[in-house]
Amino acid sequence: MPRVLLVEDEPAIADTLVYALETECFTVTHALTGTDALAAAAREPHDCAILDIGLPDMTGLDVCRRLRETSPIPVLFLTARNTEVDRILGLELGGDDYVTKPFSPREIVARVRAILRRTGHVRQSFPSAPTTTNLPHKPAPAAGLHHDASAMRIHLDATTLDLTAHEYKLLLVLMEQPGRVFTRDQLLDHAWEDPGAVTDRTVDAHIKSIRAKLRAACPGAENMIETRRGIGYSLQPQIHPARK
Ligand code: CA
């Protein structure tokens, strides 16, 4: 159940949002001030924060900055004035979003869902990956790549790839079903124990690093991982630079 940190000092707005979110099966921690919010965030991890900009003790932007010192938690900002929107847009928004008051609770729930989807949460809403037994035939292994399960290493021909733990898991997921396109969310789900702590860009960064290591092992091998723009990544079973 996704856990949302709601920071809003107007009780009427907060009550409405808590009700709407809890009805939609979110667990909500409500804080009236920035200080309380930071204390709550330190007590337990949250999947997403909803931050009112105008708080009694600090701004929602300050709260965001402080939260980000310890976690990449995605944020939905609530703003009362257009002047605040400019300041929000001045931040690097990434997986974040904002809404202008007045808003409907339904809109907030939809935005929170979208943020969680983008950042790898609400996993049950994704079509589940087909299992190997459902496939009409076992996919061809990717040329040249070998997995040594006992050593937990991946080799490209005779070269052992020096992968980090996440790179290893990512590449393994791709290798298990060559040709299948995985969305970033699916890759996050497979390769990270806590996908909420990372964003789509994390997947991109790791893929980039894996490609560099493939290339170092054999120039051209980086093309084995294909980018499907706007969708995700797949490993091409046929491509192997040394055999072209
Ligand atoms: Ca306020």
Task: Report on the architecture of this protein.
With 244 residues, the chain is an alpha/beta fold. It has 2 domains: 3-119, Response regulator (Rossmann fold); 145-235, Arc Repressor Mutant, subunit A (Orthogonal Bundle). Helices cover 38% and strands 18% of the residues. It has 8 helices and 11 strands. It has helices at 11-23, 34-43, 60-68, 82-90, 105-118, 165-176, 184-191, 200-217, and strands at 3-7, 27-31, 48-52, 75-79, 97-100, 145-148, 153-156, 159-160, 182-183, 225-228, 232-235. The strands form 3 sheets. A 5-stranded parallel sheet has the order 2-1-3-4-5, sandwiched between helices. α2 (34-43) packs parallel to α3. The radius of gyration is 22 Å and the shape is elongated. 33% of the residues are buried. Calcium ion is lined by residues 9-10, 52, 54-55.
